[in-house]
């Protein structure tokens, strides 16, 4: 697996419960196992006033990601948007599988 995880950092703290992270990792695994070449999106923190959303776009044998956080509510004025270069699908399955397994056992 590549070292792309170490490149992601933020200058603010966020709290996600184990249940939220496990649910998100499970969603990611099911979508990665679905039909190849199909984009998808998921909300990591549904029901919050500051949703964190992830959109995956197919690129080659993997996915590029667009992450959007609206720290001051679900609006279009104040938001943080980040793009991640394509990551191979097997690497994504390995990473999200390990994350999910660590939280549900």
Approximately what portion of the residues adopt beta-strand conformation? 25-35%
* Helix content bin: 25-40%
Alpha carbon gap, first and last residue: 23 Å
| H/E topology pattern | HEEEEH
Number of helices: 2
Label the overall shape. globular
Counting DSSP E segments of at least 2 residues, the number of strands comes to 4
Compute the CA-based radius of gyration.
Answer: 14 Å
Largest β sheet strand count, sense and barrel closure: 4 strands, antiparallel
Q: Helices and strands: which structural class? A: alpha+beta
Mean pLDDT: 77
Low-confidence stretches: none
Side-by-side strand order of the widest sheet: 1-2-3-4
Give structural notes.
- This protein is an alpha+beta fold and 105 residues long.
- Strand 1 (40-43) and strand 2 form a beta hairpin.
- The longest helix has 16 residues, at 18-33.
- The radius of gyration is 14 Å and the shape is globular.
- 9% of the residues are buried.
- 30% of the residues lie in helices and 28% in strands.
- It contains 2 helices and 4 strands, in the order αββββα.
- It has helices at residues 18-33, 89-104; strands at 40-43, 52-59, 62-69, 80-88.
């Amino acid at each position: 697996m590549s070292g792309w995880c170490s490149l992601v950092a933020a200058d603010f703290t966020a709290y996600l419960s184990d249940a939220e992270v496990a649910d998100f990792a499970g969603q990611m695994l099911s979508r990665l196992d679905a039909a190849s070449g199909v984009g998808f999106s998921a909300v990591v923190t549904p029901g919050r006033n500051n949703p964190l959303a992830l959109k995956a776009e197919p690129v080659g044998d993997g996915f590029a990601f667009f992450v959007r956080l609206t720290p001051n509510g679900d609006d279009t004025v104040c938001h943080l948007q980040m793009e991640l270069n394509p990551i191979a699908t097997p690497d994504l399955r390995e990473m999200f599988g390990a994350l999910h397994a660590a939280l549900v056992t």
